[in-house]
């Protein structure tokens, strides 16, 4: 607990199961040293809530019932923890989390952070990357969101979307916090990078282009695959600091590397490790903020599609250049060349986690627990149980480490397989040589047997001559002939 945090006032973050940027944003708020609130996180699924006490790092599973028992189970947990007042911070306008939020707070107010375009529908985008709002969804949302006192948006772009479609709710722009990391790559990671470079025949004097992040189908994965076919491997090379849907593993081929999982604090060091000249973001669903852009910290220029918060931030802070979203893949190299030829003088802006926390909490409106609770439940009626202690912030490091260890192990397995094939080939060669020697020896043995047979036949023939009558009769004549000579 930080010095300025009170055990009596808490904030409850209510979310759908999340990953990526939303999870990172919540983690930053929950673990911020500047927070005045004791943090709790309620992750909602259809059958069960996971209620997380971030201070004690304890998880409680609370079943969702048709009546109000689940609601009071949550509030009872807060009372048992001596919480007297509660602020509500929602993180989704769709799904079970939003329904749970509205059911939990009753007539009380709350704050929302918009992380995406889901205020416009479950899937407000089609293949053309442009908004196709669900008007029925928007009308339902307007009726249900009237108790929201503030919507926090991480970019001007997303604020304009809300002001256009939900104009009656107050919106505030507050970028997500990203702090400059002060870390160096460990020896294991450096060896991992060196191995990938070796496998990809990497040349540090080539132009090196990178992509950063999880390049899913909504982040331009298909465009990336098409563009890679146009890469001139004689003069250029590409590294994906992240992964694509085809494979989450690290891999390397000629002038192309997929680094695999990484932690966002490593990005700057990885850019240096691969000697990256420029980072490309590919056309996909318009970004509402983009942590990956912030993690680059204006270290190298970026090239982004001219849509969403990416284009807004790049233009405002001079972080690189934009290109038309309809640019075909084989024309992208022209934009890369022009961007690298333009002097790079960024005006990068960011805020720290503590500043973001203080500004976020300034929007909170605390409600006494007693004003929320309608009925008091006994401890026996609370359907919660203590779960394992988990530190969420270690997950990315562990994933990144496991991916690298898996790559090294897989390379070792491949080397063993190759060595085994070589050994088998050598054994087969030796077997062939031994077979030839065996056949040669077998031939010699047969020759010896044949010679022995001929020898025995010759001896028998000589003996037959010597034992014949004519040989014995002519013996005196042969002796006389020899004597005369």
From TrEMBL:
SUPFAM superfamilies: UDP-Glycosyltransferase/glycogen phosphorylase
Residues in Glycosyltransferase subfamily 4-like N-terminal domain copies: 20-180
Pfam families named among the record's database cross-references: Glyco_transf_4
Keyword field contains Transferase: yes
Gene Ontology molecular function: any one: glycosyltransferase activity
UniProt cross-references to Gene3D superfamilies, sorted A to Z: Glycogen Phosphorylase B
Keywords, alphabetical: Transferase
Lineage: superkingdom: Bacteria
Designated name of the protein: Glycosyltransferase
Species this protein is from: Ostreibacterium oceani
């Amino acid at each position: 607990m930080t010095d300025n945090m009170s055990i009596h006032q808490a904030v409850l973050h209510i979310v759908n199961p999340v990953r990526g940027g939303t999870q990172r944003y919540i983690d930053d708020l929950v673990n911020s040293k500047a927070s005045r609130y004791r943090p709790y996180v309620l992750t909602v699924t259809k059958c069960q809530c996971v209620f997380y006490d971030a201070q004690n790092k304890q998880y409680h599973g609370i079943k969702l019932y048709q009546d109000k028992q689940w609601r009071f189970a949550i509030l009872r947990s807060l009372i048992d923890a001596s919480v007297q007042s509660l602020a509500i911070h929602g993180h989704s306008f769709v799904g079970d989390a939003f329904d749970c939020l509205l059911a939990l707070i009753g007539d009380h107010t709350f704050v929302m952070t918009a992380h995406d375009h889901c205020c416009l529908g479950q899937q407000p985008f089609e293949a053309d990357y442009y908004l196709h709002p669900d008007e029925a969804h928007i009308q339902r949302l307007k009726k249900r969101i009237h108790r929201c006192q503030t919507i926090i948006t991480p970019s001007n772009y997303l604020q304009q979307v809300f002001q256009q479609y939900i104009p009656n709710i107050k919106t505030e722009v507050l970028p997500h916090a990203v702090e400059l990391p002060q870390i160096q790559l460990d020896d294991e990671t450096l060896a991992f990078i060196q191995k990938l470079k070796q496998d990809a025949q990497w040349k540090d004097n080539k132009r090196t282009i990178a992509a950063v992040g999880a390049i899913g189908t909504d982040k331009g994965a298909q465009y990336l695959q098409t563009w890679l076919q146009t890469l001139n491997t004689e003069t250029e090379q590409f590294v994906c600091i992240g992964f694509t849907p085809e494979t989450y593993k690290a891999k390397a081929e000629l002038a192309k590397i997929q680094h695999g999982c990484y932690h966002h604090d490593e990005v700057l060091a990885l850019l240096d490790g691969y000697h990256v000249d420029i980072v490309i973001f590919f056309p996909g669903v318009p970004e509402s903020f983009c942590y990956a852009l912030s993690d680059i910290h204006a270290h190298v220029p970026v090239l982004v599609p001219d849509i969403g918060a990416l284009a807004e931030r790049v233009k405002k802070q001079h972080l690189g250049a934009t290109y038309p979203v309809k640019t075909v893949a084989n024309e992208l190299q022209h934009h890369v060349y022009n961007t690298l030829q333009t002097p790079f003088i960024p005006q990068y802006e960011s805020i720290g986690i503590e500043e973001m926390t203080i500004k976020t909490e300034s929007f909170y409106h605390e409600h006494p627990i007693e004003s929320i609770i309608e009925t008091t439940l006994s401890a026996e009626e609370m359907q919660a149980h203590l779960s394992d202690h988990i530190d969420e912030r270690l997950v990315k490091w562990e994933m990144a480490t496991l991916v690298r260890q898996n790559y090294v192990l897989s390379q070792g397995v491949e080397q063993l397989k190759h060595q085994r094939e070589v050994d088998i080939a050598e054994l087969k060669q030796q077997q062939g040589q031994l077979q030839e020697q065996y056949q040669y020896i077998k031939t010699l043995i047969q020759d010896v047997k044949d010679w022995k047979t001929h020898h025995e036949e010759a001896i028998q023939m000589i003996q037959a001559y010597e034992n014949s009558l004519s040989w014995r009769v002519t013996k005196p004549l042969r002796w006389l002939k020899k004597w005369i000579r």
